[in-house]
Amino acid sequence: MLAAGVIAVYSALAKSGVSPLAAIMVPLVVCIAALILLNPYLPVFFNNVGFCYFIISLIDAESAITKLPVYLLSLLLGSIILNLGCSGLLALYKKSMMKKAAKSAAKQTQPVK
């Protein structure tokens, strides 16, 4: 039902001269916000199954299949970049904590004058 509303609003906005991107993003954002924000109050209507159905129903299958190699490549590259970046940050954090621990241990083992 939400998807039908999005398509109806999209077609009305597109006919009125709004750019295609804005015509689809405005109702899409409103519907996704409703699904997320109204879930605690009306879980029967605004639930995870509705969210998944709504997202899947708006997929353009033809363009998704033609652009699949690009999507998979971007997924792979993004995953590699994210994982390497996180690993680098964790290594730097671990190195600084090891220095701090060594300094603290050296301070505790010094004889008191």
Question: What does this entry look like structurally?
Answer:
The chain is mainly alpha-helical. The protein has helices at residues 2-15, 20-37, 48-57, 61-66, 68-109. Helix 1 packs antiparallel against helix 2. The N and C termini lie far apart (79 Å). The relative contact order is 0.06. The mean pLDDT is 83.
What are the salient characteristics of this protein?
single chain; mainly alpha; 5 helices
Task: Please specify the SSE layout and strand pairing.
Layout (H helix, E strand, L loop, with lengths): L1 H14 L4 H18 L10 H10 L3 H6 L1 H42 L4
Helix pairs in contact: 1-2
Helix content: over 70%
Q: Helix count?
A: 5
Order of helices and strands: HHHHH
SS class: mainly alpha
- Poorly predicted spans: none
Major sheet description: none
Shape: elongated
Number of strands: 0
Radius of gyration: 25 Å
Strand content: under 5%
Distance separating the two termini: 79 Å
The whole-number mean of residue pLDDT values reads 83
